[in-house]
Amino acid sequence: MDKASSRLTVWFEEPFWIGVFERISDGKLSSCSITFGAEPKDFAIYEFILKHYDHLRFSPAVAADGEKNCRNPKRIRHEARKQVQERGTGTKSQQALKLQQEQRKAERKTVSRERREAEKQRRFEQKRQKRKEKHRGR
Q1: Is 10 exposed, middle or buried (0-12, 13-18, 19+ CB in 10 A)?
Q2: Are 38 and 100 in contact (CB under 8 A)?
Q3: How confident is the model at residue 89 (pLDDT cuts 50, 70, 90)?
Q4: Are 34 and 18 in contact, with CB atoms under 8 Å apart?
Q5: How far apart are CA 56 and CA 100, in angstroms?
Q6: What backbone torsions phi and psi does residue 12 show, to the nearest 5 degrees?
Q7: pLDDT at 128 over 90
Q8: 59: Cβ–Cβ under 8 A, 6 or more apart, which residues?
Q9: 17-65, pLDDT tens digit by residue?
Q10: Using an 8 Å Cβ cutoff, are 31 and 37 in contact?
């Protein structure tokens, strides 16, 4: 049976509130960064997850460290308190987000290159057509 878990970390990074959604399934971690405007309330975050979870663009999956199955509730509470006091995201999440950013950058480069080449080809065809019309004496 496959296990899946997710975690949302929200913090203030001048001037916006940033949230990082981490999803772990099949031992692979993928993450997504969300930018909130004003400080989000708990109910607003819950509503956002319910409405927009399907539309989130998660990064490609990277290997995640395995977690223990049964843990002491006091330890879980202690770790949760520690995470709340920490600022930022885990390094695995940052790596996943960086990978996603690099992929988007590569996509943008290829699309812009194709657009530039198409525009260059269009101009060339336009010049050739104009020369042909001049040559015919029109």
Answers
A1: middle
A2: no
A3: low
A4: yes
A5: 12
A6: -95, 120
A7: yes
A8: 30, 31, 32, 96, 97, 99, 100
A9: 888 888 888 778 888 888 887 888 888 888 888 888 888 888 777 777 6
A10: no
Q: How many CB atoms lie within 10 A of CB 97?
A: 19
Tokens of 83: 């995470």
Look-up of token digits 């996943």: 96
Could you tell me what percent of the chain has a pLDDT over 70?
Answer: 89
The amino acid present at 62, given as its one-letter code, is: V
Residue 11: HSE in the Cβ half-sphere, 13 Å Cα cutoff: 11
- Pick the more confident residue, 89 or 112: 112
Question: How would you classify residue 27: left for phi > 0, otherwise alpha for psi between -120 and 50, otherwise beta?
Answer: left
Half-sphere exposure of 124 (CA within 13 A, CB side): 6
Residues 73, 37: Cα–Cα separation, whole Å: 34
d(C-alpha 7, C-alpha 22), whole Å: 5
- Mean residue pLDDT of the chain comes to 83
Q: Is the peptide bond before 15 cis (omega within 30 degrees of 0)?
A: yes
Indicate whether this model's pTM tops 0.70: no
